[in-house]
Every structure is written in structure tokens, then in C-alpha cells.
Model the fold of this input.
Amino acid sequence: MTTAEHPAQTESQTDTAVNPLTAPAPELWRDPNAKPFVVFDGITKEFGDFTAVDNISLDIYKRELFCLLGGSGSGKSTLLRMLAGFEQPTSGRILIDGVDMSGIPPWNRPVNMMFQSYALFPHLSVEKNVAFGLRREGMADGDVKRRVQEILDMVQMGHLAKRKPHQLSGGQRQRVALARSLVKRPKLLLLDEPLGALDKKLREETQFELMNIQEELGVTFIVVTHDQEEAMTLATRIGVMNQGEIVQVGEPHDIYEYPNSRFVASFIGSVNMFEGVVTVDEVDHVIIDSAEAGGLLRVDHGISCAPNQKVHVALRPEKITLSHDKPDQDVNCMFGKVEDIAYMGNMSIFRIRLANGKEVRVTQPNYARDIKGKFTWGDMVYLHWEVDSSVVLTV
Done:
């Protein structure tokens, strides 16, 4: 159930495989002279009156593990299917390694795709599932056996080669599907919600295995997911999608710490949002008067805005410090009552209610085993944070 490798593709492309501990993948997206490997050029896809993908232009580079992240109906799977050749764009072009894919069928693209359902043949063993595509192409038996054994060993499934899919766990079936997708050595591997069927602990473990395999083979991965934590863990870069558009592209750290809109700030992780009016706008800082925050907020960077413009300040819960004593600062300080506490093991989550009714979420790491007595239900506490901890959003 995968698309076939490009006829001109040879085994020589695996010669670029590297040891991930000694030679990390080059961050080509930071090089203005680097040539992109995958190019979406003004791609639009319409289904009748509905626009699923709206004029997307995006560059993805060799050996990236790029994540398309968005909610249901955002257009991410449609974009992936057009790249694989299962859907045709209404307008625009897709290029892979400099070749325009217009009119090229899925089986002639240098692409394989791994589906969420895995789509393994139930009557075939693990090794026969993985070998299926190679045998269809007429590869010699000895070469097939060698190639299959190499990839099964890489995904730690060599010892289960004779088993059939119903004899495997969900995580093991996922590894077999990955091996089958990689055994033909595609230039590009597309993964549609690849870990969605796994439980939380296994999903977390498999994420790191997937990263190691991708780094070792040097294959470009494009992953579609709705799971923010998964995207943050896996990706070299993330493209956040909403209503058929890519609203922000960046490395995980940049997406989380410097969102470009309220949508991105709210979609990635947890965030507190305070509406206010800009009263001071200098090159190195802004002051915002926020009734929601109950005072003045200072952010140590300037923004381009009109005088007295309404803005929002985004503040992550882990950036906030709680204290019983009033801090020595006139800005970025609030006072409220602890209404709820959730103990999560590695951290505790506090819901603080301000005097004006605004609810603020605070998270704190549990450094010590015994956290009782520090803050408890009903406590009146101060909330404060540094001037470089929040972000001003104008959209």
C-alpha cells in the first residue's frame, strides 16, 4: 500500500547514510543558498465549493523531518495526498528534487507513504510483507532477502520475521509498516498520523526510534499529525495549518516561544492570554495596560503598531512564578486565589482566579518529593514573571 520508487532511483542514494551521533543532518533551511528538496508552489485544492488547501507555498529540504501540524479539516492530509499523487492540485505545482510532479502518477514518484492503518497483508509474514514491493519489481531473491533483513534489523523486528500481523502488538505492526515503507529506499517518506494507534508510553518511545531511523538513513520525512507534543518531539521544523493555510513555519522552539498569532499560541501547548492597550512603544520594550491582568504588562521587545492599539499578551504557564510575598516589581504582577491544583508527578498545575474573575493557569516543576504546604487550595498568592517571558500578538 505504498507508492513506488522512481525508476531512476538507485541504491547509491543510501551511501549518504550517516552516524547520527557524529554527523547530524545539516540545517539547510537556515542556508539562504540551499536548494529545497520539496517545493509547494501556490498549491490550491478545491472540492466543489470547498477549498481544502488554499494557495500554499512551502519549501522542505533534504533530510528534514518536517511535520504538518493541524486540527481535523485543516488540510494537512490533503496536502500530503497531493504530494504522493493520490490527489491532483486544482492549481499550482509540486516539485520533488527539482522535478515537476504534474501528471506523474503515484507509482512513478520517488515517494513512499505509510498510512495510519498500516495496511499490512494479514496472510503474509512480516518478512513477506516487507519484501512484497521488491518482489513485484523483480528484484533477485538474494538481494531481496539481504535488503529485508537489513531493514528489519534496523527497526528491531528481525527476530519476528516469520510471524504474521495478528501475532504482533500495535507497536510491532507499526515497525513492520515503517520497514515496508523504507525497504525500497525512497527519496521521500510520507507518514500520515503514523503513531496515532499507539498508547501514550509506546508512542513516546517510538518517536525517538523514528528520529534515529530517519537520521541513520538520511531520508526526508514529512509527517502529518494533530498531536502537538508529537510534532514538537519529532520535527526539525513544523508547519502549522489552519483552514487550508499554513499560518506559521519554524523550528519547534520558535513556534512555541514566538508564535505569530493567537491561533498558533493557543494551538501549541497551553497559554494565558491577556488583552490590553499599548501605552508605551519603544524600540526595546512595550508597556501594555491590561484590565484583564489587573495592571501594567511589560514585554522587552518593540512591535509595529498604532498608538493605543489593542493587542494580546501571550504568557506560557511555566513562565509564571508563585509566591506568598509581594515581589518587588510594579509590572508583570498579579494577585489571586488558588482554586484548583492538579498533581501530575513531574509538575503541578494551578488554576488561579484573579479579583476580576480572570482565570490564570500556572505550572511548576516538582523538584522535591514532598510539595505539601507550599501552596494549597484557597491560598492568596502573587503571580509574577520576567519581562522577556511573554510575547505581544497583534493578530
Summary: The CA atoms of residues 113 and 190 lie 5 Å apart. The chain has two domains: 11-262, 270-393.
